[in-house]
Amino acid sequence: MKWQQLPLGSIQTNCYIVENPDRSCLIFDPGGDAKKLINLIHTRGIKPLAILLTHAHFDHIGAVDEIREMYKIPVYVHKQEEKWLGDPALNGSQFFPLIEPLKVKPADHIINEEGLMKIADFEMRVYHTPGHSPGSLSFYFENEGVVISGDALFQGSIGRTDLPGGNQTQLLKSIHDKLLTLPEDTYVLSGHGDVTTITNEMDSNPFLNGF
């Protein structure tokens, strides 16, 4: 399995494309710049199977409808943010003056619980990691040693908790109970910034020291 980080949209949110040897792929958090993403998919000759959202803030969902319609693929989101896609107050787009209020069509599949998830030949474990937002999810590919953490955990930082539904205590608990229990050499593919590892964050992340 291969993965590629692609910063998209007005605040360069990391979209991830996870690809199998058969050239099929999953798209995580297409936050904007749909044409850029489509061009990459076309150039690589890969076939998208689904869009998965770590959460439904505007900067993670900006290109969802265009990509979904282009490739006729389903969208997955956690049940606690099912209504956020079409509500600018919930997805945060109405609070940013330079962003037009964003309304995305309803998701095709609602994730109700944690556990093993399969899409075609892709297999991942879904963790509910709330705190940055109520329905934040992390997707762990055990065989590849990779977790897509959305805005829960960053290199040297954690997600903001001042938006609707944010809770720092809950976020720290999610990180401690779900992410820091993964193998220490696991790569953390965050929603913003550089790739890091669990061990790096355990050793040097100031927000996690003493928790």
Automatic annotation (TrEMBL):
Keywords, in A-Z order: Hydrolase, Metal-binding, Zinc
Q: Which InterPro entries match?
A: MBL_Glyoxalase_II, Metallo-B-lactamas, RibonucZ/Hydroxyglut_hydro
Origin species: Neobacillus kokaensis
Tell me if Zinc is a UniProt keyword of this record.
Answer: yes
Per its UniProt entry, which superkingdom is the organism in? Bacteria
Query: Could you tell me which residue ranges the Metallo-beta-lactamase domain spans?
Result: 12-192
Write down the Pfam families for this protein, in alphabetical order. Answer: Lactamase_B (PF00753)
Q: Which cofactor does it need?
A: Zn(2+)
- The name this protein goes by in its record: Metallo-beta-lactamase domain-containing protein
Q: Does the keyword Hydrolase apply?
A: yes
